[in-house]
Amino acid sequence: MSPDAIEFCRVFGAFEYAMKRGGFAGNGAAGSNAKANWTSFELVLGEDLFVAVAAMQPVNLMIQRPPGRLTLQQLGPPQWDHPTEQVTTTKRLMRAVRDARNNLFHGEKYGTERDEALLRAGTAVLRKAKEHTAGKAAFAQFNQFLSESLAASDH
């Protein structure tokens, strides 16, 4: 696995851990699996995050040509669905980061320069989101867990 992929995995994993522990867990029934609630996280983040990352060079590719998704077909094997519209919102940007994660984790896409660039972009988005949440009361617990998780994985 490349250094870019390893760093993306490290930061993404810390993010989801912090979300679940820091007030952004899914709203499933008691006893169901805990999941990161990206929808509530994105709503609290707001569109300021998209504005903050839109001009960042590493994120340019993710905005202009977001990662595809492998989708089921009526007949035959799954096919790649490649988005044709640029990313224009925080919600869609965070979806693109998760798509990059899914493509890497599930082994469907990995190894090309584009894939590596998307992983670098995803890491940049997550790091900017961390900066964007710093000092905001709604993210206090999230930031505490995220900082602890990232520090622990630095060793």
The level of helicity is 55-70%
User: What separation lies between the terminal Cα atoms?
Assistant: 18 Å
Number of strands: 2
The secondary-structure class comes to mainly alpha
Order of helices and strands: HHHHEEHHH
How would a textbook summarize the main sheet? Answer: 2 strands, antiparallel
Record the strand order, biggest sheet: 1-2
The pLDDT mean sits at: 90
Structural shape: globular
**Number of spatially distinct domains:** 1
Tally of separate helices = 7
Which ranges are low-confidence, i.e. pLDDT below 50, for 5 or more consecutive residues? none
Write a brief caption for the model.
This protein is mainly alpha-helical and 155 residues long. It has helices at 3-21, 38-45, 48-53, 60-64, 90-105, 113-133, 140-153; strands at residues 69-71, 79-81.
